Amino acid sequence: QVQLVESGGGLVQAGGSLRLSCAASGRTFSNYAMGWFRQAPGKEREFVAAISWNGGSTAYADSVKGRFTISRDRAKNTVYLQMNSLKPEDTAVYYCAATRALGVVTTTKYDLWGQGTQVTVSS
Fold it and tell me: pLDDT tier at 82 (50, 70, 90 boundaries)?
C-alpha cells in the first residue's frame, strides 16, 4: 500500500519544539514535491511548508516562517518538519502530503495525504 505516515506529534509547552516525521512507504517519493499542512478544529486545512523534489526549494506560510523548517531525506523516503518556538495557535492536526509536481506546491492540490498527527501547544 502506498501511504504516508506522520509521527512526532504530542503535547508541548509554548516556546518548545517538536520534530514531525513523514515516512512514505509503498513507493519512492524521491521525485515528488512534499508538503506539510495543518487543520485546527472548525478551520480549513492550511498550508504550512513545502519542499521541492530534490530539496532545492522550500516555501513556508508567513505564520511559521523563521520558526519551522521543512527538510527531506530522499534516501530514507522521509520528510521532516522541525517546529521551534511553538505557539498555542500552532495547535492542530498536522498532515504530510505528496504531489507528483516537482516544484513546491502551496495549495491543497496534493495527490496523497497522510492521516495526520496531533500537535498541541499549551500556554
Answer: very high
